[in-house]
Hints:
CATH topology of the largest domain in chain A: Rossmann fold
CATH topology of the largest domain in chain B: MetI-like fold
CATH class of the largest domain in chain A: Alpha Beta
Number of domains of chain A: 2
Strand order of the largest sheet of chain A: 6-7-8-3-9-10-11
Number of domains of chain B: 2
Strand content of chain A: 15-25%
Number of helices of chain B: 13
Mean pLDDT of chain B: 86
Radius of gyration of chain B: 24 Å
Strand content of chain B: under 5%
CATH superfamily of the largest domain in chain A: P-loop containing nucleotide triphosphate hydrolases
CATH class of the largest domain in chain B: Mainly Alpha
Shape of chain B: globular
Structural class of chain A: alpha/beta
Order of helices and strands of chain B: HHHHHHHHHHHHH
Mean pLDDT of chain A: 87
CATH superfamily of the largest domain in chain B: MetI-like
CATH architecture of the largest domain in chain B: Orthogonal Bundle
Largest sheet of chain A: 7 strands, mixed
Number of strands of chain A: 11
Shape of chain A: globular
Distance between the termini of chain A: 30 Å
Oligomer: heterodimer
Largest interface: A-B, 32 and 22 residues
Helix content of chain A: 25-40%
Amino acid sequence: MSAVPAVQVRDLHVRAGGLTAVRGVSFTIPAGGRMGLVGESGSGKTLTALSLMGLLPVGLRAQGEILHDGVDVTKLSDAQLSRRRGRTLSMVFQDPLSALNPVRRVGHQIASVIRRHKGVGSNEAGQQALSLVQQMRLPRPERIMHAYPHELSGGQRQRVMIAMALACYPQLIIADEPTTALDVTVQKQVLRLLNEAVSERGCGLLMITHDLPIVAAMCETVAVMYAGRIVEMGPVSEVFTAPRHPYTRGLLDSQPTMDNIAIDGSSRLPSIPGMVPPLDGLPAGCAFHPRCPRADDRCRREAPMLDGGGRRAACWHPLEGTLTGTNAA
Amino acid sequence: MLLHYVLRRLAFFIGAMFIASVLIFVLIRAAGGNVAAVVLGRDASPEAINALATEYGLDRPWAVQYLDWITGMMGGDLGQSFRTGESVADLVVSRLPISVPLAGAGLVLAILIAIPAGTYAARNAGRSSGTLIALISQIGIAVPVFWAGVLLSLLFGVQLGWLPTGGWTPWNVSVLGAIQSLVLPVLALGLVMAASLSRYVRTAVLDVMNQDYVRTARATGMSQTRALLTVGLPNAALPIVTFLGLLIAELIGGTVIIETVFSLPGLSRMILSNVAAREVIVVQSTVMLIIVFVMFVNLVVDLLYGLLDPRIRVAG
């Protein structure tokens, strides 16, 4: 793998009309690197991902710099982007049932991605699709190739999605909550498969999730988003054991574990008080201050920036020391 | 699975046809009055009226008359006119060379306009070009068929004198003349239907374009236009085909009006004049034929739906 990063994002803003949903996000995923992007719903994770793909919904605009494959994708025309989507840059979506074309056979859908980007004939593309389906460890691959999406199970469909995303050995795969729509029993299998497939091909991974253990298991670095900003970023092992931002701490505390889910209901799962602020009602200063136990006057006035170093946090009063208790991931 | 689906649709088709036939039969008679007396006119003697009623079995119980009619229909006997004794089958066949090209060309015109226009409007939704198309179709929906007909007739018939304002030149007299007498009626019918159809196409395509699988197609490198044509339209085809089936009924209603506006002696006008003359047999047989046709089209649509959407075959 070359030393060129899989993606380098600088000061990304996503605006819709007068509102700004993503407010100055920067991160780098090295070639073959894996980063987790975590945060609550509405924090801007998915919009960040769609900006990388150049697939923001109509009415939303991405500004900033997204360097990928030697170019700034925000400057590319749709035709230029189309040649990269599915080839150097691909995405696995949350709900594989709605993400696959209901009226086309699965094999055709995988093969069409290969045909589009590799310029091979339909026979060759079909062979490559079949071999991908086999690599995804799907039972009876020939039957799967001829099946329609509704004839497959949720886990099988997501494997098909992963096969489509991997078909052209991309430099970066974005997985947006890839297991949220799946049964708990198959989540692990699908993640293991994704993990192996990404490792074998040496592609970069951006894993978007609110499930912190997934990030702990699969990623090297993690970025925590809140209200359109990255509030903490660093190596997974350090961020999850010694969070510096109170929000990260809150997220870690609200993960269910065997300890905080008592069968008799006597102990309760800790949660972060309050709600994610709406885009048109962001508080002044640090966006998290109304929910933060450590907030003071400065937090209400001035917005903190990410500080330097390997473990960066955007907080005036970062936490010190490691987590105690069993919640450390 | 597919066989099961087809059988279910067929059973539904037969059941619906039975209900429709009973309704037609009862409704025509529920209009009241002595049919034989109306047919023969004011001056007819009671003996003559009774003779006609007996001849055509109009004095028998309704149930007997109904069974007689239905078994006749199934055997291909549509009955005959009281006044002229002409067979209904001949009457209908003689009008088809006018009504079939009118309705057929009108529908084809509507489809040819509506699918590109609706798709374009969906592709450009939110932009002024898309809004303009949507606006035009909205206006088109508000225009009654007869008004469109009168307007076209005024412009191209009266003002410009390019085409006849009405009337019919039979095919065997002049093919060109027949076509000329059909141009304006087809335009009026087709344009008005294109308005509602294009609006429907726009909605269906818009709906499909927001589906996740279109985003997936884009995320794997398909261009917007290609995704629209190869992923969006095939999925939008399902609701559009259903709507087309329903549009057939509107189409036939439209021909009644258009044939009147342009004085075309078509099937619809024949039914209208026979309703006025209380030609019960002619009306009920012809209307039943039309209903069978409309329902047959919808049966085909249902079966086509199963063909277009692999999910239907399982769910039934």
